[in-house]
Amino acid sequence: MNARTEPAQTEPATPARPPIVRELLLVAGLFLVYKLGRQLASGHTGEALRNAHRVWDAERWLRWPGEDAVQSLLLHGDGLVRTANAYYAGVHFPATAAFLVWLYLRRPAHYRWARRILAAVTAAALVLHLLFPLAPPRMLAATGLIDTARVYGPSVYGPPRTDHLSNQFAAMPSLHFGWALMVAVGLIAATRSRRRWLWLLHPLVTLLVIVGTANHYWLDALVAAALLGVALAVLPPPRRTPAAAGPGTRRPLRAGEPAAGEPAAGGPVLVGAGR
Questions:
Q1: Where are the alpha helices (DSSP H) in the chain?
Q2: What are the backbone dihedrals phi and psi of residue 43, each rounded to the nearest 5 degrees, phi first?
Q3: In this structure, how many other beta carbons lie within 10 angstroms of the beta carbon of residue 243?
Q4: At 243, is the secondary structure helix, strand, or coil?
Q5: What is the CA radius of gyration of the chain?
Q6: Which of 11, 68, 199, 263 gets the most CB atoms within 10 Å of its CB?
Q7: 91/202 Cα distance (integer angstroms)
Q8: Consecutive H or E run containing 244
Q9: DSSP run (H or E) holding 10
Q10: CA 170 to CA 125: how far, in whole Å?
Q11: How do the pLDDT tens digits run along the chain, 275 residues long?
């Protein structure tokens, strides 16, 4: 006959998901606040153009490669430049939303962390938009760049004076790049696949797109990466639980804990042992 022992108390494999309604309201509220803040930062045409000249001159003084080098590659074919414009217009929000939904369903702890990081980076970006309005390179004649979205399509922007849905003078920092980089960092932190580093292709492609379409300067992406780095330093990612590491992963033994199949010291002895 077999002896009965008290079942071991185990911690839940994954933390509970936050209430879905609260999360939807929170994300919607943050989005509305961000859109309102961008509207408050709009209308500074003269200052935005002066700052654009400063950024462009600073990059030339630092001898950074010109944004025109990337645009010239896109202009080799109409299909390529239209694909870049479509990527700029259609991937930014859906990719970030899909990232958050996946984390919410599969990695709740990482979801909370990623949501806080994105909120912190977006809030810091909004402050910079207010303090440093910046016209994108497509609006600066000195760059020699063309507005690829206007010329080849598709375009998400209208004329700056009549565009009431977005602030086109909010180039610094680039949230297109900052969010894309966070998507890659978050998926790398939350998964264990050997191929997870390929997620870095998303921010890399995003960087080439935002620069090649003349929507951002190199410096816009650099500032976005710096803001994300500060946020990650303050809010490090959570530890992955054994459940997140995949099936078949054993929990590390605590000090003094017997291995599976071995009786604990001073614990119950199986009836009939030794027969």
A1: 20-40, 45-61, 67-74, 78-90, 92-106, 108-131, 148-152, 175-190, 201-212, 218-234
A2: 90, 5
A3: 13
A4: helix
A5: 25
A6: 199
A7: 10
A8: none
A9: none
A10: 9
A11: 454 444 444 444 556 777 787 787 877 777 777 666 666 656 678 899 999 999 999 999 999 999 999 999 999 888 999 999 999 999 998 999 999 999 999 999 999 999 999 999 999 998 998 899 999 999 999 999 999 999 999 988 866 555 555 678 889 999 999 999 999 999 999 999 999 999 999 999 999 999 999 999 999 999 999 999 999 999 999 876 554 444 444 555 555 555 555 555 554 444 444 44
How far is Cα 130 from Cα 1, in angstroms, rounded to an integer?
76
Residues 6+ apart with CB under 8 A from 82: 152, 153, 154
Please report the sign of the dihedral spanned by the C-alpha atoms of residue 64, residue 70, residue 73, residue 75: negative
- What are 88's two structure tokens? 């700029």
Place of tokens 């870049």: 84
Q: Return the exposure string of 196-226: e unless at least 16 CB atoms fall within 10 Å of the residue's CB, then b.
A: eeebeebbeebbbbbbbbbbbbbbbbbbbbe
**Token reading at 214:** 């003349």
Q: Residue 257 and residue 1: Cα distance in Å, rounded?
A: 25
